[in-house]
Prior knowledge:
By secondary structure, the protein is an alpha/beta fold. It folds into 3 domains: about 5-55, no CATH class; about 60-190, Rossmann fold, CATH 3.40.50; about 210-370, NAD(P)-binding Rossmann-like Domain (Rossmann fold), CATH 3.40.50.720. The chain is about 50% helix and about 15% strand. Helix 2 packs across helix 17 (about 425-445), helix 8 crosses helix 9 (about 245-255) and helix 8 packs across helix 15 (about 375-390). The chain is globular and about 60 Å long. (2Z)-2-iminopentanedioic acid binds next to strand 3 and helix 15.
Amino acid sequence: MFHSEYVEKVYRNLCEKNAHEVEFLQAAEEILSSLEPYVEKHPEIEKEKILERFVEPERLIQFRVSWVDDRGEVQVNRGYRVQFNSAIGPYKGGLRFHPTVNASIIKFLGLEQVLKNSLTSLSMGGGKGGSDFDPKGKSDREIMAFCQAFMTELYRHIGPDTDVPAGDIGVGGREIGYLYGQYKKIRNEFVGVLTGKGLTYGGSLVRTEATGYGLCYFAEAALKQLKNESFQGKTVVISGSGNVAIYACAKATELGAKVVAMSDSNGYIYDAEGIRLDVVRQIKEVRRGRIKEYLNEVPQAVYCDRSQEIWTLPCDIALPCATQNEIDLDHAKILVEHGVLAVCEGANMPSTLEASRYFIEHRIVYGPAKAANAGGVATSGLEMSQNSQRCSWSFSEVDQKLKEIMVRIFNNAYETAKELGNPYDLLTGANIAGFEKVCTAMLSQGV
Ligand code: NDP
Ligand code: 2IT
């Protein structure tokens, strides 16, 4: 599995210490194995124990969140924040509210975030947080009560120059608003301590669209460079129907593709005519309903109640935008058999390690999450800049900057991959390109 004894030793120790953290170990294995060529050329990494430090979070905070539901009953959830690495900037990364959240999930996301944020070329370290709170079926008042209780614990650990959270699964504009309001009440400070804020109180234009748009900008650049292809006339399948999926669908359509399927955790819809995004947005953004309701508006569409089978649909471009490990080796084989050109990841770690290696081996345009979905956090970085300058840029200014950042991220990963001998191995390219800056900063800053 590993060529270098040193890297293997680091991974083995990590397994011993975190035996039950499957997702964290998966992310660490992927990253460590791809860093080997770089580590072998830089003996100072072993000498200064950089990898041992790199895989150990600077801080992992766990806290109790108790709040009162609409029946007047006390509910208790667990909150987390991992402050993973601050070598190149304040901790930065989203908050996830989902019943599956645990320390392993938060740590895998935090580790990924360190390299992703480095790739954006902005000054942001890596962090991540969240709770096992399940927003599904909760009233607005319950969401507000939970967010206020969550922030009452979190506020002491964050700050505009310390750690700046944002959204992720289950945390969108509504939740960021309640979290921000509570921070302000406690601290009596109007500062850029969260990103993804509403436009009336310091948010940035394009932040809502940024991850999905950025994903398509990345995919477009990669398709052009590696296959001399584009979105024009292509059939696209997108998993999920949340923030990332919706704006990926909008941009892919604008670039001339036809999106034929989208999903949620209950199932997927297939519409051969092309997904009507206005219908999806009404269901998901306005009513917070289920994707199955699409059939009420578009009866010719088909619904399947096994969401992962979305990957058995033939397509030219696959954009996984739901969650981790949604594409396994069997799905990867089916996608390749169906002639998929590109698989670019909007979600974090949506492909298992075996699936991503299969895509790379078969010369698929494979855009690994930390590169392909970095547009969200990059635009968060732009929101932070606007907040500290007390200014706001126009939609087209931010969109232009986002586009430039995504093209630069692709070029950086591609050039690094090419130098190592395989231009399709953007996974190794992205990991090494992201690590280089963090490693150099860590070496300069001592232990
Ligand atoms: P949302 O909460 O807006 O949407 C999540 C979507 O994924 C929903 O359709 C949801 O379905 C589906 N989903 C969630 N969990 C599962 C599951 N276990 N199985 C199947 N489907 C699931 O989140 P986002 O769109 O913001 O996030 C989607 C992905 O993108 C995540 O991996 C996130 O980490 C990543 N990401 C998000 C960024 C952002 O800026 N928001 C930036 C970079 C990456 P359901 O409603 O049924 O739960
Ligand atoms: O995974 C991610 O990059 C995010 N959820 C966005 C983080 C951010 O700080 O904007």
